[in-house]
Amino acid sequence: MADGFVVSTETQVAAPAATVFAFLIDPEKLLRWIGNGATMEPHPGGLYLLEKVSARNTARGTFKEVVPVHRLAYTFGWDENPGVPPGSSLVEIDLIEQNGGTLVRMTHSGLPTEEDRANHEKGWKHYLERLSVVAPGGTVGPDEKW
After folding, report:
1. Kind and range of the H or E element at 124?
2. To which H or E segment does residue 144 belong?
3. pTM (2 decimals)?
4. Domain of 96: which CATH number?
5. What is the per-residue pLDDT across 33-59, written as a single tens digit (0 to 9) for each?
6. CB neighbourhood size of 20 (10 A)
7. Residues 6+ apart with CB under 8 A from 69
8. Do 140 and 133 contact (CB within 8 A), yes or no?
């Protein structure tokens, strides 16, 4: 998988890394901030499936690295998008405890075009903002942005 175009972003979350990690791999918690259905098998080779992201698309990939409370890496792509098909890109998330919370450092590489990079950057920003609300105990309404 080539590096292609890359999205890199960081978000501070006012919750411990263990809590944030759970919101990334536990389907019940995950659905509080992204998607409408999820199947997560958080071990190398396990399935990453997030249904109805942005009200219509399904994201699919395979977990490559799972280091509890510290790091996730999984392939990523869209069932409905032949430009970014399942498994064609790589998402890496590092959780770093700092400032009484957790710094979420996310890199999404292997995107094929600048347009795909820009669209995924917009999406990640939106969803990581939602994560930063729910992980510390807040709530977000239905995802009407997309």
Report:
1. helix 114-134
2. none
3. 0.94
4. 3.30.530.20
5. 998 899 999 999 999 999 877 656 899
6. 25
7. 17, 18, 21, 95
8. yes
